[in-house]
């Protein structure tokens, strides 16, 4: 059987089941609100979101590999590009861009221009240190760790950055 | 010229009041808004027997007082939008468009997970959007 060619993010996004964007946004908002009520500390909430993302990431990576058929990435740059272009497109429907590479090529920033998680959201003054999208950096961390790629990632002023 | 805008919750609690004049008669405007809430309640409780009971969101001119006109808009969740204007002739269609855009801005503000329903709307984005809508309304009617 001939090897299947890797599909582009758009093609996969068109073929998977989709959910209403507002439902998704409001559900995520409710989760964050509930965490804030339960844990009260902004740092604790950030940690919890990261942990939740990690748990999602370790499971999500198998589905990603099965649906997208990407080839083995040669280096970290390619990995970051694949995450940004194929991964985010497939699961969130938005394309991210990769910038801010450091000298050794081990750290980069993935920028999401319009993030469906943060529609309608305005952080109040009491939660200024909250990394609202920390779940995304947890997902990336979890996914990369499945490749035995320990990578601390975090949100940097509403931008997610990944270090390998 | 739109002088004052107010959003009143379903328990008649004020959620947002903004006046757009430099004059220091904010109290008088608030009082007028308060009275119009009563007029709305009256209209809602005693629907006109002539027509069928339609779900009309735009209530129209509530009560013309001195040199002001007060318009009302009722959403399905019993949230009331009240507008006080000094314009003498305002087209019905313009009013409806204005309220529709205001309603859209309100819905976006309320969808913020950090907004507590029943509390005042503190979103700065909402205030900016409302200011833009008011400004563009002023331009279309005077132009």
What can you tell me about this protein's structure?
Chain A: Homodimer. Chain A: Pfam families: TRAPP. Chain A: It comes from Sesamum indicum. The complex is a heterodimer of chains A (164) and B (143). Chain A is an alpha+beta fold and 164 residues long. Helix content of chain A is 50%, strand content 12%. Chain A has one domain: Muramoyl-pentapeptide Carboxypeptidase, domain 2. Chain A contains five helices and four strands. Chain A has a four-stranded antiparallel β-sheet with strand order 1-2-4-3, with helices on one face. In chain A, a hairpin with a 2-residue loop joins strand 3 and strand 4. Chain B is α+β, with helices and mostly antiparallel strands and 143 residues long. Chain B has one domain: Beta-Lactamase (2-Layer Sandwich), CATH 3.30.450. The longest helix of chain B is centred in the N-terminal third of the chain and has 20 residues. About 3% of the residues of chain B have low confidence. The chains are: A alpha+beta (164), B alpha+beta (143).
Mean pLDDT of chain B: 80
**Overall morphology of chain B:** globular
The 3D shape of chain A can be described as globular
Using only C-alpha atoms, the radius of gyration of chain B works out to 15 Å
* Strands of chain B, total number: 5
**Looking at CATH, which topology of chain A would you report?**
Muramoyl-pentapeptide Carboxypeptidase, domain 2
Shape-level CATH architecture of chain A: 2-Layer Sandwich
CATH architecture of chain B: 2-Layer Sandwich
Query: What's the CATH topology label of chain B?
Result: Beta-Lactamase
The average pLDDT value of chain A, as a whole number, equals 83
| SS-based class of chain A | alpha+beta
**How many E strands of chain A?**
4
